[in-house]
Structures are given as structure tokens and as C-alpha cells.
Amino acid sequence: MKFLLFSNPLVKPLLLAAALAPAALAADAKENWNTHCMACHGKDGKGQTKAGRMAGVKDQSDAAYQASLTDEKMLTSIKEGVKEGVKEGGKEKMKPFKDKLSDDEIKALIAQIRSFKK
Ligand code: HEC
User: Does the beta carbon of 100 sit less than 6 angstroms from any atom of ligand 1?
Assistant: First the structure.
């Protein structure tokens, strides 16, 4: 029976897909980060990009920074955007991503940010 299952050409792609699924999910968060966040926050969350320096992003790899934010606060900020602490008359610092990313995608991005911690 085991032999039959594994040699069945229809079952093989399914097994392969199941084996690859976690890796594909991890790549998604990275891909979303690169597409939507990296320009300002940098590849490593340190914000050492031209746009990041202009926008004044904080170093997300900093332990004190990480400790200052709960996952819930991050979720709200990423969904609704960041406006507080603005210098030039209420200008948006970071736009809301709730129309672009699902809650699950945002949660995966928060895990990504947590992984930047030194
Ligand atoms: C246009 C530049 C820009 C882009 C793109 C951007 N951010 Fe931001 N982000 C900022 C700025 C500016 C701040 C405010 C300063 C700070 O906290 O670093 C900020 C703040 C944050 C914060 C802290 C929020 C808080 O409550 O203090 C998180 C978390 C965050 N960004 C995550 C993300 C994620 C995830 C993405 C991609 C989906 C993203 N950012 C895309 C500029 C950007």
C-alpha cells in the first residue's frame, strides 16, 4: 500500500507541494517586505536607505525599539499607517497597508521585523 501511494504519479506532486509549503510561506513575508517595506526600512530593518533616512525611520534591529512596540501596536500602525510625530503639518509618514496586505500577511511581516532584533 505504501509502495502504491508513493509510486502513484498523481500523489507525488501533492507530496511535493506539501513539503514545499512552509518554505513558500516564509518567502512570502520576505517578498512582501521587499516589495512594500524595504525601500524605507531597509533589507535588515535598520532604515539605512535613501528614503529611510529622509523619512526618519527608526532602527528596527534595536532591542529597545523592539521592546517599545507590541505586536498589536505594530499591526495597527501597519494597517492604518503612521501619522504621529509629524514635522510638516500632518503629512503621512507611512501609508496604510490594510488595502494591500491581509492581517495574516501583516502578522508575518511583524515576525519578520522581530527577526531583525540584534
Ligand atoms: C515611505 C516609507 C515607508 C514605507 C514604504 C514603510 N514604512 Fe514603516 N514607517 C515609516 C516611517 C517614517 C515610520 C515612523 C518612524 C519609525 O517608527 O520608524 C514607520 C514606522 C513603522 C513601524 C512602527 C510603528 C509604530 O507604531 O511605532 C512599523 C512596525 C513599520 N513602520 C512597519 C512597516 C512595514 C511592515 C512596512 C511594509 C508593509 C512599512 N513599514 C513600510 C516609513 C515607511
Answer: no
